[in-house]
Design a protein that fits this description.
The mean pLDDT is about 95. It is built from five helices and eight strands; from the N terminus they run ββαααβββαβαββ. The protein is an alpha+beta fold. It starts with 11 loop residues before the first strand and ends with a strand. Helices cover about 25% and strands about 30% of the residues. It has a domain at about 10-130: Aminopeptidase (3-Layer(aba) Sandwich), CATH 3.40.630.30. It has an eight-stranded mixed sheet with strand order 1-2-3-4-5-6-8-7, with helices on one face.
């Protein structure tokens, strides 16, 4: 069996969980959560139904040295929670600019988990970004509240393609300037 690669990203601690790089052992829980249609339709990139090998490839991409996206899992084992409660990522979009994206497993919706993860990643600022962007589907106001509660400012409307919906979906776009 191939061992996990050591990924050059920090582990970030919060009160309820740690944000840590993805491991191959996360595959089963991520597949279970990402296979939920209610979760998939709120993302741009998760297909529904989830094809075989999709999450394995995602984890392997997240472990490569030349990746453009750093991915962390919300790991609650330190607080007697599950190993995977959600995923959060930063994608490099330009010099000192990144885009944040996240999803939380349905069992943990409306628990403040996403807000805590976003705040922790902003505070750590592992990519030394001066601006972080984000977008959410307009029919997902809970994710929009996460961003505004974390200090993001509304920029405007746009649209993004959702693989699970097989359609372009209206979005709200946000930014956060870091000092």
């Amino acid at each position: 069996m191939k061992h996990d690669m050591i990924v050059n990203q920090p582990v970030i601690e919060t009160d309820r969980f740690v944000l840590r790089p993805l491991r191959r052992s996360d595959q089963g829980l991520i597949e279970m959560y990402a296979g939920d249609k209610d979760l998939a339709v709120n993302t741009t990139s998760i297909p529904h139904p989830l094809p075989p090998g999709c999450i394995e490839a995602y984890i392997l991409r997240a472990q490569t040295e030349d990746r453009t996206e750093d991915v962390w899992t919300m790991d609650g084992t330190a607080d007697n929670g599950p190993e995977v409660m959600g995923v959060i990522s930063l994608t490099r979009v330009d010099h000192r600019k990144a885009e944040i994206a996240y999803w939380v497993a349905p069992a943990f919706w409306n628990t403040g988990l996403a807000s805590e993860a976003v705040r922790a990643l902003i505070a750590a600022n592992p990519l030394e970004s001066d601006t972080i962007f984000a977008s959410v589907f307009q029919d997902n106001p809970a994710s929009a509240r996460v961003l505004t509660n974390c200090g993001f400012q509304y920029l405007g409307d746009a649209e993004s393609f959702s693989v699970a919906r097989d359609a372009a979906v209206p979005t709200w776009t946000y930014s956060l300037k870091l000092d």
